[in-house]
Amino acid sequence: MSIKTRLLLSYIAMIIVPVVLFGLTASTLASVFFGEQARFGNEGGRSPIWNMFNERSEVFAGVKFMAQHDPDRLLDQSLLTSVDRQLVPLKSALVLVKDGRVAFASESIQKTEVERLLQGSLGSEKKRWIGQDGYAIESVDLTFSDSSAGTAYFLFDPKPWFATGRYFVLSMVLSLLVIIGLTNGVLTYLVSRSIIKPLHALKRVAEDIKEGNLERSFRLNRKDELGELGDAFEEMRGRLHDSIHRQLQYEESRKELIASISHDLKTPITGIQACVQAMRDGIADTEAKREKYVKMIGIKSEQMDRLIDELFLYSRLDEKKLPFHWEELDVAAFLKEFVEELRLDPRMEYIRVSCSSEGHMPSLLVMADREKLARVFMNVIDNSLKHLDKPEKNIRTWLSFDSEMVTISIEDNGSGIDPQALPYIFDRFYRVDPSRNAATGGSGLGLAIVKQIVEGHGGTVAATSQLGVGTVLQIALPRLSSKEGNEHEAHPDH
């Protein structure tokens, strides 16, 4: 439920709930103050004011009945005294006037009020007020048996009714205020709590992010706008965490690179310095020794140049600043040419290199940068040479293809790679054996460069290995077209 809907429902509830509660409260108060089923425990289960009203009405009704049917009985003083005793506790009084003179007046009414009553004129009215105490008057005209005229005045004190009415109105007002206050207070608390609580949680998350604490995940588990905000905070936290983690990894890798390059550069520099110092000290006192030291200086310089070249190449690849020169390339022909050149490498003197593309192969076209693809194969071969440890050393290449991809596989029978290290061999600066120097181990960028170049071609690279048996590295490139033959796999020559 959205916050807008929640607030709208709370506003509706703030109107409807008080109205319903006030209606129930008003009904209850009316029953308590005026109803017949008041809970006072008095006789008949009625409120006192209700009992007083009923009893007084009964007495007045009896007197009126006699006044209409047998008015002469009202001249009986004992009867009137008896009626008066009933009227006193009911805050009421009776005055009987015959021929303009008071024939009877209740003892509870003052003489001055009786005089004011006689001096006044009711006219056609049946009720009016007299006296400081505000008696209400109701009169009934009489005609006695001797044809004389008279009037019976019924007086009653309305103050109990007014007092009860004031209490009732006051109770209604207080009840209304309490109902509105409680209802609005409870609803406001519930709605504000449902909003403020997640806001506090968001504040804590923001403070954690400000302090750099990005490890604790955050979920509001709500379907409203705050839930969406919480999800955005969590996504931001996750991205910041991943970004900082990658940055820390990059910094760590950069430190490893600096340490590795420093170490690998220092080794040939130290060798060069040693050769120069030996020549300065006259140790190289023959032409053969001088030639040996100069050759050593050249080898060390080549190692330095290769390290710097790999670092520069990977840096440009990583920053996407190295341009690719695309051309249609027949992979089978390219691989055959590469293997033929490889066999001429002095390092391959005692290594058997085979290629399935030496026989008949279909034309397998890819869009590639010839120079960079050659760099890929050379880096893979260089990596294989470092691990060839058997008397009979073999490097085999073959092609496989389907309608979409062309896969070049390069296999060696070297020492293999530990399964725990295999997932990381394409990571930058990673070395299976960190103790290797520049002459044997390289900078740790060779296979990382392979991955960057292959992915720049829209392809993939993967490796499988078995300790003590060897390693197979597979490079898959998108195929442009297939001009002859069905899909098949060309197996390596033996």
UniProtKB/TrEMBL annotation:
Residues 193-245 form the HAMP domain. Keywords: ATP-binding, Cell membrane, Kinase, Membrane, Nucleotide-binding, Phosphoprotein, Transferase, Transmembrane, Transmembrane helix, Two-component regulatory system. Gene3D superfamilies: 1.10.287.130, 6.10.340.10, Histidine kinase-like ATPase, C-terminal domain (3.30.565.10). PROSITE patterns: HAMP, HIS_KIN. Its main location: membrane. The keyword Transmembrane applies. It catalyses: ATP + protein L-histidine = ADP + protein N-phospho-L-histidine. PANTHER family: SENSOR HISTIDINE KINASE CPXA. This is histidine kinase.
